[in-house]
User: Fold this.
Amino acid sequence: QLRQERAVTEAGDREGRPCKMPVGAAISRPQDSAFLFGRIISAPTRRVFPQRESQSPCQSAKRTEDRSPGVLNLNLNAISKKECIIMAKMYYAKDCDINYLNGKKIAIIGYGSQGHAHALNLKDSGCDVCVGLRAGSKNWKNAEEAGLKVMTIPEAAKWGDIVMILVNDEVQADVYKRDIAPNLEAGNMLMFAHGFNIHFKQIVPPADVDVTMIAPKGPGHTVRSTYVNGKGVPCLIAVEQNATGDAYKLALAYAAGIGGARGGVMETTFQDETETDLFGEQAVLCGGVVELMKLGFETLVEAGYEPENAYFECIHEMKLIIDLINKGGVAAMNYSISDTAEFGEYVSGPRVLPYEETKKNMKAVLTDIQDGVFAGKWIAENKNGRTFFNAKRAQLAKHQMETVGAELRKNMLWGDDTDLDTASN
Ligand code: NAD
Ligand code: MG
Assistant:
């Protein structure tokens, strides 16, 4: 990965707003040249700009005086040029030409959370797709009923020019060795939605195939629901091997096909995607959030409040709050919540998550990921029959926050809608 010095130059962002953008690193990689647009920018992020400006544009954006309901007016002119630093190399819909997939056969291996979303989105985008499944898989019928071609995994791997592996990370190496590797041809493209098996060398592809990643930064069902709504889940792109020289444009076309380009595609490496993805889900998105909601729920219930109240307060409302942040940053949430709530945020947030201690713990989690300690544990857990994992899953299912939540959701007017593909609507 490039770690060279680079100049910082002035350029405009997509809307023509002035920004300071670092340039240089990306330019020295020859295969990138086709994707250098006027305003572009650089690659590697962490370790390169340690003294990034402390305030992001959204943090520094001022509320306007006119607080009309539901309308958030960020005063973008108030953002100084210095604060607007774009560090990553980004691609958007205009940069991702889906036509590069014309004539390409795309095999999606697996029909789970990501698999069904990629297969259906690509089909709806006009691509030639098939799904590779185990003979006798219960998903065979589902995929066929959704209008997809279905083959066994070896057949699909043979059929496809592009083979996207969307079976669980922990079984990918076995499936790859047994069913996929023998059917890969020179010039094919092997794709992943997460870097685990390449980065930790569980899968070592032959040198004559392209190896790329399009990793949606969201759950598979949301990849589907947002696509259907004309939006998309932002993705990361990484190219590990560019045997054909076409790996970037094909992977970007794939990102367009699943709707990811509508949200933005950021260039990274398999290593960085693996480490940041594992960190995000462990420390914040899944590990952090679930623990936070669970402890909040328990604290209220143990203090004698109704579990229903605790569920609404600490769990149901989480999505409603996050939707605002997703739309307009923390500023949008703070705009919509009361000033009382915002004051409490500043006073009690750091009390619940003590800054130094939490940061230290998060760094330890990251170190375990970077050193491969976490990967080693997860691989061993699978070899040992998942005793810890299964016990934890069963224990969580019995937790009152889950049982009370299920009852409350069932009785909501839309309670019969349990389709996860509409969960983000
Ligand atoms: P999943 O568990 O939802 O689905 C996996 C599919 O593989 C299922 O259809 C399952 O039946 C099949 N499968 C399981 N074992 C198999 C075997 N031995 N042989 C053949 N098929 C088998 O998986 P997922 O969460 O969609 O993850 C797929 C990939 O996408 C992973 O690399 C994951 O890291 C990545 N990813 C997932 C998400 C997400 O939201 N779930 C987000 C980003 C990236
Ligand atoms: Mg993730």
Observations:
- Confidence is low (pLDDT under 50) at residues 1-82.
